[in-house]
Design a protein that fits this description.
alpha+beta; 5-stranded antiparallel sheet; 3 helices; 5 strands; binds adenosine monophosphate
């Protein structure tokens, strides 16, 4: 059983900040900024890609509400809302979760770096990806 299932089941403690019938939100134990929060569905899904759509939409509604509240309460200047899907994307806990990371300055502990990759044919990719 993954660590977030254990938290949901009450087998291990957490710093709970919000709960409803579908989801639980708690402070990340390795915070990269003040208020860094993890929101998880109570039901087990490996990651965002395999999450039931209704549950996913519920989680994202809660995330928006909490993120807005956190920014106001903590006087943050903004926030990152992040989910990592699968190991290649940096996921370490195999239970769908969304990070809310309030931001105060570029010296907070969160880094998202966009490094442009040369040689990608955008026309070809657009044709592959266009949804009719
Ligand atoms: P990710 O890399 O997106 O899978 O993020 C997993 C996050 O879960 C990390 O930021 C961890 O610090 C956090 N984490 C792991 N175990 C716990 C725990 N017991 N309570 C709270 N947060 C946790």
């Amino acid at each position: 059983m993954d660590v977030f299932c254990k938290i949901v089941n009450g087998d291990i403690p957490c710093y709970k900040v919000y709960e409803d019938e579908v989801c639980l939100a708690f402070l990340d134990v390795n915070p990269v900024s003040k208020g860094h929060t993890i929101v998880v569905p109570k039901q087990h899904f490996e990651e965002a890609l395999d999450c039931d759509m209704e549950v996913y939409l519920h989680i994202m509604k809660v995330v928006k509400t909490l993120a807005t509240t956190w920014v106001n309460k903590l006087d943050a200047k903004g926030c990152n809302i992040v989910t990592n899907a699968k190991e290649v994307a940096g996921q370490t806990v195999p239970h769908f979760h969304v990070h809310i990371i309030p931001r105060y300055s570029d010296e907070d502990g969160y880094r998202a770096e966009y490094v442009k990759q040369e040689g990608l044919d955008l026309v070809e990719i657009m044709h592959v990806l266009t949804v009719e």
